[in-house]
Every structure is written in structure tokens, then in C-alpha cells.
Design goal:
Elements (H helix, E strand, L loop, with lengths): L10 H14 L12 H8 L3 H14 L2 E4 L3 E4 L3 H25 L4 H17 L4
Antiparallel strand pairs: 1-2
Helix pairs in contact: 1-3, 1-4, 2-3
Amino acid sequence: MDWNFRNDLPIYSQLIEQIKLAIVSGVYSPGERLQSVRDMAAEAGVNPNTMQRALQELEREGMVYSQRTAGRFVTEDLMLINNAKKALAKSRIKDFVESMTKLGYGQEEIMSLLDESIKEERKNGNS
């Protein structure tokens, strides 16, 4: 998994978002066993305590669960995964609309730009 971090958010929140994204996009399958905290932290280039904190939060949300001697696993609750996917999408849409509004675009212009971009993506075979 590629780990990319920005300076505007705490690392553990970015870890949560990136692991959640990997779950909802199918990089990690429902029921799949995750690497150890130490291995995931080494791969991401972060402190194991930071990775542990992120995984604990994902566990609290139900996205992953622990089995005492076997490690952590991705939830098998497909409804929870779909709800997380929708929440991530809504968050990204909200950020996009806010940034477009700051650029001075109105609702109709934003919709037109989106429509144009979708058509272009389809033409290029990316959708």
C-alpha cells in the first residue's frame, strides 16, 4: 500500500483515512487479516504507537476487529463498509464543493464542470 502524508492533519488521522480507504476500495478484503502493527508502521514509515492508535480507532468504529492470538482483521460487515465508503465520498465532495466555491464557481458551474470531467474520463476509458 502506498502511504502519502500531508502536513495539514495529524498522521494518525491520515492513517485512519488511508486504511479505511483501502478497506472500502477492496485493497483489504472483508475478513482479511491485517499485517502486525509493527509491520504496518514500518511500511508506512511511522511510529508503531501511532499506527496502534489509528488501528484502535478503526476497531472502535468497527472497521477492524481483534482476535486475541490471531491479530486484527477487516470487518465482514458489508453494510458498515458501504456506509464508510459513502461517508468518505460525501466528505470528498464537500471538500471539492467548498474549494470550487472559494474559486468563485456557483452550483450550476460546478455541475457543468463535473459533467464535463465525467464525459472526458469515459472518453479516455477510465470509467
